[in-house]
Amino acid sequence: xxxxxxxxxxxxxxxxxxxxxxxxxxxxxxxxxxxxxxxxxxxxxxxxxxxxxxxxxxxxxxxxxxxxxxxxxxxxxxxxxxxxxxxxxxxxxxxxxxxxxxxxxxxxxxxxxxxxxxxxxxxxxxxxxxxxxxxxx
Length: 137
Hints:
CATH class: Mainly Alpha
Organism: Microbacterium pseudoresistens
Function: Channel that opens in response to stretch forces in the membrane lipid bilayer. May participate in the regulation of osmotic pressure changes within the cell.
Number of domains: 1
Oligomer: single chain
Strand order of the largest sheet: 1-2
Protein name: Large-conductance mechanosensitive channel
Shape: elongated
Family: Belongs to the MscL family.
Largest sheet: 2 strands, antiparallel
Main location: membrane
Distance between the termini: 58 Å
């Protein structure tokens, strides 16, 4: 029982996952600062995003005689915040890293890998090769 646990813990992918979680947590701090210091003030130029938490509230009576409130404004604010974070991650980190990888590959003369074939394309190629081989015999 303990041997299986030991094997599980010492597998490379578990260690890689742990490192990824730690790096992800540290990276989150960077993204949050960029969003809070740059993106949110830019959004604030056009409208006050904090006001969305209190906006678009719908109060509905419950079956027990009380009321419940749906905060659609808070959901819209969360979507805007998510899109702002995704925008920062893509344009500040992903896009420059992809460009750097392309430049590095071009400088080293390594050709880019061909995209993987779909199952249908692969089956068509196999069929064509079989037809070609049967015609040769």
